Structure formats: structure tokens, C-alpha cells
Amino acid sequence: MQTSSSRSVHLSEWQKNYFTITSGICTGRKADAYRAQILRIQYAWANCEISQVCATKLFKKYAEKYSAIIDSDNVESGLNNYAENILTLAGSQQTDSDKWQSGLSINNVFKMSSVQKMMQAGKKF
After folding, report:
1. Cβ(69)–Cβ(31) under 8 Å?
2. 76-86 as b/e, with b when 16 or more CB fall inside 10 Å?
3. CB atoms inside a 10 Å sphere around CB 17
4. Is the per-residue pLDDT at 96 higher than 70?
5. Counting runs of H as helices and runs of E as strands, what totals does the chain give?
């Protein structure tokens, strides 16, 4: 009895995700739905509800669709996970500068509550 109820819950989730994917809702929600589908496939495979061959085909299908949304630089159909500014910084070697200074100094570090707790714990021993 538990198996049929758990399958009906999964079917319900599949239906919700299918509606989200096909309804043309925002791309962020579509990406979330694809990610949820991938997790459900993993769950079904781990519980021997689907075969390895079936899981492989479904993983490929949904991973390709998910990555198409995440990696797309089209504003209307993708999320552009790789922003141009980040790629520019990664491509250039100019991010290492002698003028760069950290906001942390020895005095600032000792003022942090976690560091003070560690120092007090060390004094107890």
C-alpha cells in the first residue's frame, strides 16, 4: 500500500513539474523543475523503481534541457549562469595586484567573536 501511495505522490510531482516546464513560466522555475525531475530520477533509480538504462536515458534528457537553460546567454530563454564580467576576469591575469589590500588585519581578527571564543577555550587548558 505504501508503494502505490508513494508512486502517486511522485506522479503528482512529475505532473506539477511537467506543467511548470511546458507552461512557459519564468526560466528560473523551469530550471528548478528540471532539477527536481533529475532528483526524482535519481530517487527512483536508487529505489529500483526504474532500470539503469531508463535512468541513464532520463538523466541525459533532463540534464541537457537543464544545462540549456542554465548556460544560455539568451535573456528570454536562459539564466546566463556565466556572466560576462566573470568570464572577463577569469580570462585575464590582471586580478592579482600588488595594490590589493585585505580588510582583515590582526586587530580585526582578534575582535571576531569566534576567535575570542577559541582564545578563551585555549586559556582554560
Report:
1. yes
2. eebbeeeeeee
3. 20
4. no
5. 6, 0
Cell numbers given for 18: 511537467
Residue 37 CA, chain-centre distance (Å), reads 14
Do 45 and 52 contact (CB within 8 A), yes or no? yes
- Enter the pTM of the model: 0.51
HSE of 64 in the Cβ direction (CA atoms, 13 Å)? Answer: 5
Residue 66 CB neighbours (<10 A): 18
**Amino acid identity of 7?**
R
- 56 half-sphere exposure, CB direction, 13 A CA radius: 3
Q: Are 62 and 41 in contact (CB under 8 A)?
A: yes
State the pLDDT at residue 118: 85
Which grid coordinates are listed for 42?
535519481
Look up residue 67 and give its three cell numbers.
544545462
